Amino acid sequence: MIDFAVKFYIIVLLLRWALTQQELNFNAIGKTIGVMTDFIFKRIKGTKSDSDKYIPVFILVLGFLDGLFSAFFSRMNAGITIMQTYRDLIAFLGCFFILAILLGATASSIASSAFTLFYRLGAIWIKAVRVILPIRSNFVAVPAILSVALISIALMTGLNFIMAALLHLGVLVPLILVSDAASHFVLSIVTMLDIYMWVFVLRALLSWLSPAMQSTHAQIIYYLTEPLLERVRRIVPQLGVFDVSVIVALAILAVLKRIIIQLVIHASL
Prior knowledge:
mainly alpha, 78% helix, 11 helices
C-alpha cells in the first residue's frame, strides 16, 4: 500500500512538472495538483522553474523512504531493500515515460489538455532523440521508447551489480544481470498495464457517481485515462446513451498485456 502511494505521488510530481504556473493557478487539474504539492514547493523560493529542479530530489527521497519502510516491515537487509526499491522505481518511471510518449504522440491530432500533459512529459525523450536522429514525424516515438527502455535496463543492471556485491555473490556473468534487468523491466510493463486497467475501472465506477468526478483524485484519474479514451471514441462510436470506450480500452490493454506475456514466455524458452 505504501509502495502504491509513493508511485501515485511521483506521478503527481511529474504532472506538476508538466504544468505551467498559470495552469497551476487556473486550470482544474492544475489546482488539484497544486493542492497536493504546494505544502512542499511553497517553501522553495524562486520561480516554478527553480522549484521544478527539486522534483528529481524529491523522487529519490520518496524511493529511499519507501525502501526503508519495506525493509522495516519485511525485516530484510536495508541496503538490499533500498536497491530493490530503486530498481522497481526505475522500471516504473521507464514504463510511465513510455506511456507518456505513446499518448503524447497523438497530442497534435487531438485537442485535449490531457494529451498536452503527456506530450510535454514525452517531449523530454523526443527532443533528446531528435538531437541524434533528425526525425520530424511521429515515428520518432519508436526510437524514443527504445531509448527509455535501454536506459532503464542499463540503470537496473547497475543496481543488480551493486546488490550482487552487497550479497557477496562474487562476479556474476554480466549477461545474467542484464537479462534479469530486462526481464524485470518487461514484467514491470505488465504490472503497469494491470495498474492502468484498474485506473480505467475506477474511472467507470466514478462516472456513475457524478459528484465523485469533481474530487481531487478523480481529476487525476480523468487526466490519466482520457487520452486513450478520447482516441478510442474517434474509432468506436457511442451506442446510444452508452459509452463503451472504457470497455474497448480495457480490451486493448488486455490484448497488449497478453502479447507481452507471450513474448516473454517464448524468449525464455
